[in-house]
Design brief:
Chain lengths: 327, 344
């Protein structure tokens, strides 16, 4: 079990190293950093001095090592555009995205699991069939269309919810939250639903098919043959076995919710990381893009580590053997 | 003899499919007395397992019990509500499945699964149920049960897992145990241990056992009586010694002739039954065995034979119909070999 954890950690570190290298390469291949900083009329001598001062003359491995050391200390460089530390820029935007993503993930997980189990148990029920048909919409409609549709109904027609921004936020140390004010909560509703919709339907359909699969296994039949009540069979025997494969997909999906909230943030003009990234791409602000890339990498790696830990909790076969996951 | 533990009368099970209704079980009747082991043999698809599932009420759609009666200790159980039938399962009828590797939930400790089952059927406290679980594990021959109770299924060998499965079936001291191919997935040396365990448990607790298998060796060693099934019907049923040594039904004769023995001389070839059992969708009219039967005459393809009491056997074959004066004429061939061939 220790070996299993260690291996996961080493893998995570390797992945982060690779992501950092790609981020670092962006500085060299996406535009010329000197040209981005100095004006049009700078002399060749000015450029060479700046290049030396910034350490761009050093060999690449040295530069990469310095980049890594700085990044590890939270120094991600200065934004070309705004002239402020990238770390500070990310820090300002982080709470908005995390709040949005975590609430969406929670909604997708809770509702997706509940509906998935329900549609599996009442496989032939009318309501289950209606839910399954409706979920096709969720799987096939693009996110921005759902967002725009929600805005049209609830902001334009009904005028219940604001169509953009976070509303009033409350500052708690370096964190800002919209959960403590009414306008903040109202602003969250539509972006959260929009972002959660696809994940929700995906988790639901996955849970349903896995659950149906597990319900056909011999140990479920044997549990029925022992007179174990259906409720216990569904929620104790079947659900936990269902969770093993579901956790993998869900983990990856939750990572992408945090990482790729870009579309939803753009539709709702949400002041989060995704919106910051879109702006940076438009003005080729390489340090911000590189930092965002590493952030996304970090999110995936952390989520994967957590997924591995959940595996260990769920499946005793992994705990006793130091073997890699069976599936 | 007192009232049988299990009494099945004219049981019929159907599967509704797009291509019509398939009769998996068609008019099966048998009794099992207290402490008795009834072996049920037949080829794959003869309806052995379906009979077991029907008795315990685990026929899943599109299958359904289409007729007949199942009585447990005199009480009719085939028409109980799902909830009432659930209370019968595990409590009064225990079931053992074929593959011990897949019968146990891999994510829960053996003890958790035992305690859960015990508490489903009794009012024992957690500590009481755990104590009982340890006793059960000891009874089925698991060494160091106090320690093994906290193991997960994957930490047990195949034979040990099947012992755990048997312990689970015994949780509430059922009157009847249905063992569906309990040894098929095990090593031969382990098979013998599991069989002797089942025999001992049946003897000590007076439990009636319905042993479903295609292994005649297991039947000969374990069963008191044996039912030979063919195409969803019982071809012959009777005391194991008589049915094995002097089978009456032509199919049973063929089945017994196909068992290799060590004392056979090299000239003796294993008897083969020509052809194969019909699919459920193509069961012929009359006697389902008549296309393969060397004794068959026109009546066999017309009339369905009803079980006839003949000595200690009950046999569904027109050859033994005392009211049919022509039957004896066809019996002449009985001593001729069915057809000889090399066992492959």
């Amino acid at each position: 079990m220790i070996a299993y954890l260690l291996r996961s950690l080493v893998q995570a570190a390797l992945v982060m190293l690779a992501v950092a290298f790609i981020a670092f390469s962006m500085f060299r291949f996406v535009g010329d950093p000197i040209a981005s900083i100095v004006g049009q009329d700078a002399t060749l001598k000015d450029r060479q001095e700046l290049s030396r001062a910034l350490g761009l003359d050093d060999p690449m491995p040295v530069q990469f090592a310095r980049f890594l050391a700085n990044a590890a200390q939270g120094d991600l460089g200065l934004s070309y555009r705004q002239g402020r530390p990238v770390a500070a820029l990310l820090g300002e935007r982080l709470p908005a995205t995390i709040e949005l993503a975590l609430l969406s993930a929670l909604l997708a997980l809770v509702v997706g699991l509940t509906l998935g189990v329900y549609t599996a148990i009442r496989r032939n029920g009318l309501l289950a069939n209606v839910i399954m048909s409706a979920s096709l919409v969720g799987v096939s409609l693009p996110t921005f269309l759902i967002g725009i549709g929600l805005i049209y109904i609830f902001s334009v027609e009904l005028r219940w919810l604001p169509s953009f921004g976070r509303g009033d936020v409350v500052r708690l140390g370096w964190w800002t939250t919209g959960l403590l004010t009414e306008s903040g909560r109202k602003s969250l509703v539509m972006p959260v639903v929009t972002l959660a919709f696809f994940q929700l339907t995906l988790i639901m359909r996955l849970v349903r098919s896995e659950m149906l699969e597990v319900m056909r296994t011999e140990y479920v039949r044997f549990a029925r043959a022992r007179g174990i009540p259906d409720r216990v069979i569904h929620f104790r025997h079947a659900l936990r076995n269902t969770m093993v494969p579901v956790v993998t997909i869900t983990g990856l999906q939750l990572g992408s919710v945090i990482a790729f909230a870009i579309v939803t943030e753009t539709v709702f003009n949400w002041p989060g990381l995704g919106a910051l990234f879109v702006q940076s791409v438009q003005v080729v602000d390489v340090p911000v893009m590189a930092a965002y890339l590493m952030f996304v990498g970090l999110v995936f790696v952390v989520v994967n580590l957590l997924t591995d830990l959940v595996y260990l909790m769920l499946d005793p076969r992994l705990r006793s053997a130091s073997a890699a996951p069976a599936r | 003899m007192s009232e049988p533990v299990l009494s099945v009368r004219d049981l019929r099970v159907e599967f509704v499919t797009r291509r019509g209704i398939l009769k998996a079980i068609d008019g099966v009747s048998f009794d099992i007395a207290k402490g008795e082991v009834l072996g049920v043999v037949g080829e794959s698809g003869a309806g052995k397992s379906v009979t077991g599932s029907a008795v315990i009420g685990l026929i899943d759609p599109p299958g359904r019990i289409a007729g007949g009666e199942v009585r447990l200790g005199g009480q009719r159980i085939d028409n109980l509500s799902p909830e009432a039938m659930r209370r019968v399962r595990g409590k009064r009828i225990g079931m053992i499945f074929q593959d011990p590797l897949t019968s146990l939930n891999p994510l829960y400790r053996v003890g958790e699964q035992l305690v859960e089952t015990i508490q489903t059927h009794t009012n024992l406290s957690n500590a009481g149920a755990r104590k009982r679980a340890i006793e059960l594990l000891a009874e089925v021959g698991i060494p160091a049960p106090e320690r093994r109770i906290d193991g997960y299924p994957h930490e047990f060998s195949g034979g040990m897992r099947q012992r755990v499965v048997i312990a689970l079936a015994l949780c509430a001291e059922p009157e009847l145990i249905i063992a569906d191919e309990p040894t098929t997935a095990l090593d031969v040396s382990v098979q013998a241990q599991i069989i002797s365990l089942l025999k001992r448990l049946g003897r000590e607790h007076g439990t009636a056992i319905m042993l479903v298998t295609h292994d005649m060796g297991v039947i000969a060693e374990t069963a008191d009586r044996v039912a030979v099934m063919y195409s969803g019907r019982i071809a012959e049923i009777g005391p194991v010694r008589q049915v094995v040594q002097t089978p009456l039904h032509p199919y049973a004769k063929g089945l017994m002739g196909a068992i290799p023995t060590l004392v056979q001389s090299s000239d003796d070839r294993l008897v083969q039954i020509p052809g194969s059992m019909p699919r459920l969708s193509a069961i012929p009219p009359g006697c389902p065995f008549h296309p393969r039967c060397p004794h068959a005459w026109d009546r066999c393809s017309r009339d369905r034979p009803d079980p006839i009491q003949h000595a200690e056997h009950r046999v569904a074959c027109h050859l033994y119909d005392a009211n049919d004066p022509t039957a004896k004429a066809h019996m002449i061939h009985t001593h001729a070999p069915l057809e000889e061939g090399v066992a492959s």
